[in-house]
Design a protein that fits this description.
This protein is mainly alpha-helical. It has one domain. The protein contains five helices and two strands. A two-stranded parallel ribbon has the order 1-2. Helix 1 packs parallel to helix 2 and helix 2 packs antiparallel against helix 3. It is globular, with a radius of gyration of 13 Å.
Length: about 110
Amino acid sequence: MVGRGSSSAGGDEPFTGRTAIGFDHGYDGELFYLGLALDPAYIEGFIEGCLKRIGEDNPNEERLFRDLWEDETQRDLVLDCLKADCEVRKGSLGVFEVALANFDDFFYVGG
């Protein structure tokens, strides 16, 4: 599953590359890779994926996390809270996932 971008990503454009991988990890996989913690695209996708998953069951909780995320001083807190519900893995992406991220970046066909 690849989600649509947030308001900061244009809203209607699908995620690509590491943002899409982060979204999938937050939404479907409930995974977080520490090796990608410094990649803003991965973090953006992860946050959006987690918030979409949360919002399906509890829209009020999603809104609370979104409001906190908008306050840049609270971003570490939000990320830590969302990671707590996921399997945290050391390392980075495998070769296959890196190839998919690069493929998306160079060969995206809009829909």
